[in-house]
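Hey,
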Amino acid sequence: MDAVVTAGGTPLPEDPLYRYTLGHSKAILDIAGKPMIQWVLDALSASHKIDNIIVMGMSEKIGLVASKPVYYLPNEGRMLANIVAGIGKTLELNPQTEYVLIVSSDIPALTGEMVDWLVEQIEGTPADIYYGVIPRAVMEKRFPNSKRTWTHLKGLDVCGADINAAHVSMATEHLDTWEELIGHRKSALKQAATIGFNVLFMMILRQLTLDDIVKRVSERIGIRGKAIIWPWAEAGMDVDKPHQLEIMRMDYGTWGLAKPRVTSK
């Protein structure tokens, strides 16, 4: 399976991260002596399930390294356009490709073990899109000060993972809806409104379970969806704000660069 890494985000002056990036890509923020995206490439390199890595929005001049073949494509300007271009590249490399991982460049705590686990969840369970969620208890146990945005479901609070998977057909189907959903990816309520106000209303009342949401989204868009409940917080610990950047810098300092990052479910 190939992995498409989205790395086109550059914080604007009004973004709190701008004072760290100063007009440069967020993906190259330094964490423990490496660009943030390099930690993601390290995880994909350590995976036994990944064949190729396609980096969207970055040039080979940045000097990234990986043990797997890496292909660089220019930033298409929008998240969905980058994903579509990345999937197109995987099909160019292997026309028989069926599924692709979509990985954000700002989850530096990701490991190869976690990547392999996700691919194993996909294998043997056909769907069009696989969307990961992390229970609040899992996230707050690992990163108690992360201050994530929570989606409140019946009996469960979750945040979204930043590594997901899709069938390659998703690069040509339902693009208008995907564009709107991706545009609202930081707001579960706005995403629910895109799907339908009845879903939004039920979410506000906390009357929908995770399975209910998957079923309603699948029916609304006309796809087969599958929710992946992550046992690891690292898949959703993306660096969107300064305090999250500092958490990750401190986390790597605590582990120590000479020590392997050992995680447990």
